[in-house]
From TrEMBL:
Family annotation (Gene3D superfamilies): P-loop containing nucleotide triphosphate hydrolases
One of the record's GO molecular function terms: ATP hydrolysis activity
Keyword field contains Nucleotide-binding: yes
Keyword presence, Nucleotide-binding: yes
Organism: Brevibacillus aydinogluensis
Entry-linked SMART domains: AAA
ABC transporter domain sequence ranges: 8-231
Name of the protein this chain belongs to: ABC transporter ATP-binding protein
Keywords: ATP-binding, Nucleotide-binding
Domain of life where this protein originates: Bacteria
Pfam families: ABC_tran (PF00005)
Length: 235
């Protein structure tokens, strides 16, 4: 695959929540241009790591570099971040959300957003507050994927989406990512249906990276990503 430069570098990054450590000297590099899976059990530190990249949480110790600089609001025009929980405006429809995106999100491509809405079978008239979890997940994906930014950080983007739709969405993502030069980080618990998306994988446990590498190499050495997950985290 020929991955060279790193888009993101963590060096002994630690984040405390009270006495508990959300991240524990996390040391890790994410290759530029990769589609990277962030994998690990509940509470491993995946969301904390992503929030730090998006500049929404500040670490307590260690360093993090995103394209060579510290994260923060002034870097956010480079990043499309899909949080694990969203808040919407009351009374807004999918169409309103797209308009909001066009006005406020740097690099937002309106035509692509509308294409994605149609690909993901969303109704533009749908009110966002009344959406099912799967519909909401699709809308959040649209708002991120429509953006021409160098880094996408997607925290559990498939959660709540049914299996068949998930498979279709993964196929359209493979298509979309092959056309564009973006670094993409995706945390997910749905490893089976999403494995084909990834060319790099990071396994996290207790706030540390326990294994990372190019998916092709990991597969050749240790089996499928699902098998590796079981080897690392199974009882
Ligand atoms: N706001 C917070 N206040 C207190 N503790 C927190 C907070 N956010 C995260 N933590 C703790 O930090 C650790 C890492 O949490 P994080 O949400 O990053 O894990 P995760 O890997 O994303 O988990 P999941 O797969 O369940 O979404 C957990 O022990 C969690 O309880």
């Amino acid at each position: 695959m020929g991955l060279t430069a790193n888009a993101i570098v963590f060096d002994r990054l630690t984040k405390y929540y009270g006495k508990r450590r959300g991240l524990n000297e996390l040391t890790l590099a994410i290759p530029e241009g990769s589609i990277t899976a962030i994998l690990g059990p509940n509470g491993a530190g995946k969301s904390t790591m992503m929030r730090i990249i998006a500049g929404m949480t500040v670490p307590d110790q260690g360093t993090v570099n995103v394209f060579g600089r510290q994260p923060g609001w002034e870097r956010n025009h480079l990043i499309a971040y899909l949080p694990d929980r969203a808040r919407w405006y009351g009374g807004h429809t999918v169409a309103d959300a797209l308009e909001w995106g066009e006005r406020l999100l740097p690099g937002f491509n309106r035509d692509r957003a509308h294409q994605l809405v149609s690909d993901f079978k969303l109704d533009v008239e749908l009110e966002v507050e009344g959406m099912s979890r799967g519909q909401e997940a699709r809308l959040m994906l649209v708002l991120c994927l429509a953006r021409d930014v160098p880094l996408l950080v997607l925290d559990e983007p498939f959660s709540g989406i049914d299996m068949i739709s998930r498979e279709q969405i993964v196929l359209s993502l493979i298509d979309a990512f092959s056309e564009r030069k973006q670094t993409v980080l995706i945390s997910t618990h749905e490893i089976g249906e999403t494995e084909s998306l990834f060319d790099y994988a990071v396994f996290i446990q207790d706030g540390r990276a326990v294994l990372c590498g190019e998916v092709e190499e990991l597969r050749a050495q240790r089996g499928s990503i699902r098998d590796i997950y079981r080897q690392l985290f199974g009882d």
